[in-house]
Amino acid sequence: MQPAPHAPAAYTNTVRIGYARVSGRTQDHQMQLDALAGAVLETLKPGDTLVIYKPDRIARSMKELLVLLEDELHARQVNLEVLTGICAGTHRPNGQSIADKMLFMVAAMAAEMERELIHERTMDGLAAAAAQGRYGGWPAKVDHDTLAIARARQACGESVTAIARHLSIGRSTLYRALAQEAEADATAQS
């Protein structure tokens, strides 16, 4: 972005906007950090500000956050701005007193502790529900009655695609249910 012709020299900073997030089935945090490093950190120049929604978008722990802040951002004279949460605010490499740094570290540690407490409560809740026979997730799309209808229609020569359309379920869902039933029958006969 070029500065306006009449803009004073002090206002000629370039604005770069980007977004880096990798979500996969494994939710591999290292893969996310590598994508962040490749897509964002390499493009930042001294004086730029990396803006994030909240600290867990770039670090999973207080240690990771501090290493990123000191070794990556502050070493390259890059500011960090956190938009929400307990660590919200702009963190500059040379503009913070020791008290500001300490407050940031305490806030980040509190946020990490809160995240761990939420995780523990969630795990406790899931364990309690499992003990009562309740499990999370979507209810099964294909119950025994639906599977019986599908088998009967398939025995009459109807295609799986037509059966799935008639039952208002996905073709792959029906294939999977039929395969699971066949596997269960084979196991029961063994």
Automatic annotation (TrEMBL):
Resolvase/invertase-type recombinase catalytic domain: residues covered: 1-133
SMART domains referenced in this protein's UniProt entry, alphabetically: Resolvase (SM00857)
InterPro entries: Homeodomain-like_sf (IPR009057), Resolv_N (IPR006119), Resolvase-like_N_sf (IPR036162), Resolvase_HTH_dom (IPR006120), SSR_resolvase (IPR050639)
Keyword DNA-binding: yes
Keyword presence, Membrane: no
Gene3D superfamilies: Homeodomain-like, Resolvase, N-terminal catalytic domain
Domain of life: Bacteria
Keywords: DNA recombination, DNA-binding
UniProt record similarity statement: Belongs to the site-specific recombinase resolvase family.
Protein name (record): Recombinase family protein
Organism: Actinocorallia libanotica
